[in-house]
Amino acid sequence: MAIKKVLLEKDHVEGIRYYETYRREGGYRSVEKAFKMSPADIVEEVKKSGLRGRGGAGFPTGMKWSFIAKPEGVPRHLVCNADESEPGTFKDRYLMEFIPHLLIEGLIVSSYALGSNTTYIYIRGEYAWIVDILEQAIAEAKNNGWLGKNIVGSGFDCEIYVQRGAGAYICGEETALIESLEGKRGNPRIKPPFPAVKGVWERPTVVNNVETLAAVVPIINMGGEEYAKIGVGRSTGTKLISACGNINNPGVYEIDMTISVEEFIFSDEYCGGIPNGKRLKACIPGGSSVPILPANLLLKTAKGEQRMMNYESLSDGGFATGTMMGSGGFIVFDEDQCVVRHTLTLARFYRHESCGQCSPCREGTGWMEKILKNIEYGKGKMSDIDLLWDIQSKIEGNTICPLGDAAAWPVAAAIRHFRDEFEWHVLNPDEAQT
Amino acid sequence: MVKFSEEKLKEVSELISHYPEGKQKSALLPLLHIAQEEFGNWLDVPVMDYVAELLNIEPIEVYEVATFYSMYNLKPVGKYMFEVCQTGPCMLRGSDDIIAYIEEKLGIKPGETTPDGMFTLKTVECLGACGYAPMMQLGKHYREHLTKEKVDRLIEECRTNANSLN
Ligand SMILES: NC(=O)C1=CN([C@@H]2O[C@H](COP(=O)(O)OP(=O)(O)OC[C@H]3O[C@@H](n4cnc5c(N)ncnc54)[C@H](O)[C@@H]3O)[C@@H](O)[C@H]2O)C=CC1
Ligand SMILES: Cc1cc2nc3c(=O)[nH]c(=O)nc-3n(C[C@H](O)[C@H](O)[C@H](O)COP(=O)(O)O)c2cc1C
Ligand code: SF4
Ligand code: FES
């Protein structure tokens, strides 16, 4: 079934990366429309759309915008989070690389709605060539009057600057991102105060994901109510999913959140099934921080209902039998893959990326990696599995930012659903990796 | 002597103009990228001190940042740095084999540089290219869907480029 695409509808139009083509295809209409509305009306449309933050936490965007403090005489800022570093996630990159003007357009409308005259795109440092693409798009937009002073006669001024990070997953966490934008180490701040009250240079700041801000374009074009008709329940609109691992067609897909997980994995329109006739073993559907599920619980919920690709269905069953939508980084495992080894790479990742401020995260991630390494390399004991469980449970909820939780959950889920695999490693040290 | 050209200095003042008055420290990360590119692909202490001077901040503020972020090199690296992703999704598509193959081809381990100063091998964590795995970063660009043959060709390419530069 063909679905309604509102973000990637034009991604294959030749030359869509450049202003002329983008404009010819209807680009920047939402800016023209927005300037006929008041900023408050735009916030209202976004509220009506039901749009939820696409960075992973799923917080309602319109509500967040309405929380922004407006102290007299203090500038406010919009910051676009393009740090995209969650293993399995590469959707924002696709959008920026192929339709950069969609993001710029969304940023102009959102900046107007929030009263941000200076807006920043904080992009992970490794996406160096995308910085050039964005800067070119910004220059084109500016040359055509969509940025700068008194944009298309509206009286609204706005500049967009691209800021490059330098290799640190933690800088995707919004308060770490703000610290980094201020030229410091990426150490997360304690929330509250939320950035909406005290953000960059202590000014009210809204941080939103690339995909969230791009979605503002179709919301304004079609109206919040129309947008909310796409999808189901509180999962309104479309979602970009980056699919990877053992599938025939890895890539970025726009889905309308009414399709089932089974259809997404096996239909040729999406992942196209598992290569070499192998069987589906497991999947991490929302980026490395969300729980892994074995095939049976992935395709059907514990209640026996078909599991769907939306926020509610993916989290059905809580952490006992469910998982999360997260950032939409969809990682598929075929039957030959080793869950212990994969979990070890994730533990190493989180140890490497911990900023080191909180002891449960700093020490705990290191211990988890070490124990997992022992198990994987045939030097583990049965009691190590319980120890691992114990450590992860003590990190969760005891840290400044959710990186600690993000490190704990994959380990917990791997043990919960694949304990036999951990035990097999302990019992068969001779067959272990060397 | 550590000093930017006039042209680079213009770029620096343009950068500083992106931030409010007195918040020039915000230019630190981008400035370190520029400095690293200009001064031999790593950040020696005099380079960091120069950056501190340009931004009118304490040298320690620069060291703090340079040591936090993985893209800043604090010691010399080879002319070509192969930064191969080793995180889960790439592992599922065979990154372990690619890393082993490069180790064998170049005779170095991750973190090491070939004696001729040509290649550095580095293992890195997820670069946002999981669907195009296995992959590596080489300079400004990504090299994706790596195979052994592709690695062979890349090494050749680098050697040829290096020769034509000399
Ligand atoms: N896209 C990626 O590469 C990655 C995404 N993530 C995702 O990040 C999520 C965690 O992010 P957090 O920002 O810590 O979640 P959070 O739930 O604390 O916040 C979500 C957003 O809502 C805002 N917010 C929440 N309550 C508010 C209030 N009362 N007033 C004003 N604003 C409010 C926050 O400022 C933030 O922008 C995880 O669920 C994970 O899926 C994690 C790692 C990487
Ligand atoms: C460790 C960590 C890393 C994160 N990385 C990203 C990221 O790369 N991109 C992103 O948009 N949000 C990331 N987030 C979530 C942000 O803190 C924040 O919720 C998000 O940018 C808000 O935008 P949204 O409401 O549009 O989703 C991360 C959170 C944590 C805890
Ligand atoms: S939980 Fe980890 S990453 Fe987050 S602030 Fe604490 S130490 Fe830093
Ligand atoms: S895991 Fe290698 S690029 Fe994401």
Task: Characterise this structure.
Chain A is built from 18 helices and eleven strands. Chain A is α/β, with parallel strands linked by helices. The radius of gyration of chain A is 22 Å and the shape is globular. Chain B has about 170 residues and is α+β, with helices and mostly antiparallel strands. Chain B has helices at about 5-15, 30-40, 45-55, 60-65, 90, 95-105, 150-165; strands spanning about 80-85, 120-125, 135-140, 140-145. In chain B, α3 crosses α4 (about 60-65). The longest helix of chain B has 18 residues, at about 150-165. The mean pLDDT of chain B is about 95. At the A-B interface, β3, β7, β11 and α15 of A face α2, α4 and α5 of B. Bound molecules: 1,4-dihydronicotinamide adenine dinucleotide, flavin mononucleotide, iron/sulfur cluster (SF4) and FE2/S2 (inorganic) cluster. 1,4-dihydronicotinamide adenine dinucleotide binds near residues 55 and 406 of chain A.
How would you describe this structure in keywords?
heterodimer, A: 434 residues, alpha/beta, 5-stranded mixed sheet, 4-stranded parallel sheet, 11 strands, globular, B: 166 residues, alpha+beta, Arc Repressor Mutant, subunit A, Glutaredoxin, 7 helices, 4 strands, elongated, binds flavin mononucleotide, binds iron/sulfur cluster
Short characterization:
The complex is a heterodimer of chains A (434) and B (166). With 434 residues, chain A is of the alpha/beta class.
Number of helices of chain B: 7
Tally the beta strands of chain B: 4
Helix content of chain B: 40-55%
Radius of gyration of chain B: 18 Å
Count of strand segments of chain A: 11
- Secondary-structure element pattern of chain A, one letter each: HHHHEHHEHEHEHHEEEEHEEHHHEHHHH
Strand content of chain A: 5-15%
Question: Given the helix and strand composition of chain B, which structural class is it?
Answer: alpha+beta
Query: What's the level 1 CATH class of the largest domain in chain B?
Result: Alpha Beta
In total, the number of domains of chain B comes to 2
Residue runs with pLDDT of under 50 for 5 or more positions of chain A: none
Q: What's the overall geometry of chain A?
A: globular
Largest pleated sheet of chain B = 4 strands, mixed
Proper CATH architecture of the largest domain in chain B: 3-Layer(aba) Sandwich
Rg over CA atoms of chain A: 22 Å
Overall SS class of chain A? alpha/beta
**Beta-strand content estimate of chain B:** 5-15%
Stated plainly, the CATH topology of the largest domain in chain B is called Glutaredoxin
Summarize the biggest pleated sheet of chain A: 5 strands, mixed
Largest interface: A-B, 55 and 40 residues
Distance between the termini of chain A: 47 Å
Cofactor (chain B): [2Fe-2S] cluster
Protein name (chain B): NADH dehydrogenase subunit E
GO biological process, one term (chain B): inorganic cation transmembrane transport
Family (chain B): Belongs to the complex I 24 kDa subunit family.
